[in-house]
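[step 3/7] fold_predict: job queued, chain A
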Amino acid sequence: MSDVTKRILTGTAYVTLLLFVLMQTISALVSFLLIAILATLELKKIFEKQNLDFHTWPAIIIGLTSYLAIIFSEIKFILFLEIIIYFISLLFHTRKNTFLLAGGTLFSVIYIFIPLSLIIPIGYFENDIYNYKILFGLLILIWSSDSWAFVFGKLFGRHKLFERLSPNKTWEGFIGSIILTTATGYVLSKNGFGLSQTEWMILGTLTAISATLGDLFQSMLKRESNIKDSGNILPGHGGILDRFDSILLCFPVFYLYLYYINPILNY
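[step 4/7] structure written:
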């Protein structure tokens, strides 16, 4: 089977499965928690490529509690207790890289678990009723952003956007992505995905910018570790972090816009 065929089949299965699990609150919560754990294991490998230690189980346990605390605020005290216990445990760490260990643990929580946990608050944005259509629309924006950037870059790309981290990204692709992802937001607003025309178009613009930055950040991590892909769990696409790098930055941006910026704009 050719690499192109693998990529198409894996991509189709990935999109279908992701949209399916988002249709119900429980399946979305459990699936994205599993994705966060798998992504953390890939992050561990990235750390190891740089000869850095990584506290896998503390990262997963604190990350899991952080994930649930975002959704169920009443368990935040457990999260605080775990962090205190973890810091105390570092007192008995005999190596000289304690700072890097603690930093790696907290980084995995902030970079992976917290962004992915926002899937539920975003889904409940309107009237405290879970609306998977909003999530569908936001994912369509993310995928559209990547696709438009690729197409415009191939057709018109001349000027490198950030050659040190991603030699194939161009300013032409980035600008084209902003324009057409914003247009995609307009199309979504006309096809029953909730939110207003203005809201979807603003989200389209924010998506193109934050998705690009998220991809560049992941490229930086991989380049510093001298690896091409974060894993091989998705044939033809690499690892979980490779597929979710845009989402990890887009979800916090979506959350901030929907819950904080949008109310101010509509005041």
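[step 5/7] annotate
DSSP finds ten helices and two strands in the chain.
The longest helix spans residues 197-225.
exit 0
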